[in-house]
Amino acid sequence: MEMVPGLPRTSVAETLAEKIVELRPGALPEATARKCEDLLIDVVGLCITARNEDYIRSVLAGCDDDGPCTAIGHERTMNAAGAALVNGAAAHGEDFDDTFEGGPVHAGAVIVPAVLAACERHNPDGRMALIGIAIGAEVLCRLSLVVPKAIHKAGFHPTAVFGAMGAAAGVSAALGLNAKQIVDAFGVAGSMAGGIIEYLAEGAWTKRLHAGWAAQSGIRAALLARGGFVGPRTVFEGVHGLFHGFAHTTQGDYEALTGQFGTRWVMDTLAFKPYPCGTMAQPYIDCARRLAARGIKPEDVTEIVCEVAEATVHRLWEPLANKQRPRNGYAAKFAVPYLLASGFVHGGVGLGAFAESAIRDARVLALAAKVKFVIDPDNPYPNNYTGHIRAILRDGGVVEERQPYLRGGAQEPLTRQDVVEKFRLNAQHGGWSATQSDAALQLMAGLHNGRIDLSSLRG
């Protein structure tokens, strides 16, 4: 093909695609393969826990995509894109899924549903599913490092935007596409990416949809590319490319995307959440729980001041009155004043903290009304998620707590047993028996070593 003046000889997508096709099943480092296995366990549990929720019933009702693929926890089967949509929405729906601390982005809820559905329909080889999950998650995480914080600042959800690209990469790898086809898949996925964060205004459901929409977009992009459909090779860095559209700049650290790809795996640091709510809120809940463990009562507190990262304020702290008294359970997941108050009063934040009765708890709301924030210009977000509480007491005393990192993250990761226990609790919440959970865990333990059959995850 004749070069167009002004365009690079080798684009970012072409560099990345060449590195992707060099990776082979069985070549993953042990830590990376194990992280992929943890992602699978976590995502399946999350799909089960959300299977009876109203938003999943709505997604199912809105789909006419029946086919042979598994919507986890449901008897109904769907085509690959439909299964990826439902499973992705369910996995992300309770905001209990993994997170990448450098992003923040949620990899598992996008990549696992996309790769599982694509393989179940088109290439039921567990080895290819494993490499697809690893590559898809790695691409998604690395994309979030190119221009940190810019996507959120522009009003978009990074998981939705980068998720379509990561899913395209993961599905392409799992289906064995060549380098040219992977470039085209990236190019096509760039026109499918999107996801605004206006759900924050009133606690609407659209964020829940983002992971599933990105997952099905990745499948469609990969299949289109496999069929010969051509996408722009400068989809990332081009003057009208992904970063121009969603970050309002073409200047970024593209080496963070392509450098040492396949030899250094950033996805190894993916964090699993201890609480089903916004990631950056979690260290503040830990601080609140430790404060309560000192024997301090909510009624003893006159004011709580939290040091926060400026980039988190528009999502988790403002408007302050709304975050102190969220209008519904979903809005409460992104309201730090409510979350830390709930953790303080009840000793933790579980799935029940977002029921209608819970968000109207008088003691929780009374304490949340006392929570304020100040900007900490030295906060390390997004490279590290920290928490801080300074409580002023009625007797004039001042008590502080700090959490220097996200529990479940790189500095205090969950063990495999922790991930399995989380799966069991989520499956129980979703109405599955211990026998069903045991069978699912047995299936997942051998999934990457043989032919993929997900039929036992239905119903």
TrEMBL record:
The lineage of its organism: Bacteria, Pseudomonadati, Pseudomonadota, Alphaproteobacteria, Hyphomicrobiales. Residues 14-249 form the MmgE/PrpD N-terminal domain. SUPFAM superfamilies: 2-methylcitrate dehydratase PrpD (SSF103378). This is MmgE/PrpD family protein. InterPro entries: MmgE/PrpD_sf, MmgE/PrpD_sf_1, MmgE/PrpD_sf_2, MmgE_PrpD, MmgE_PrpD_C, MmgE_PrpD_N. Residues 275-429 form the MmgE/PrpD C-terminal domain. One of its GO terms (molecular function) is lyase activity. Belongs to the PrpD family.
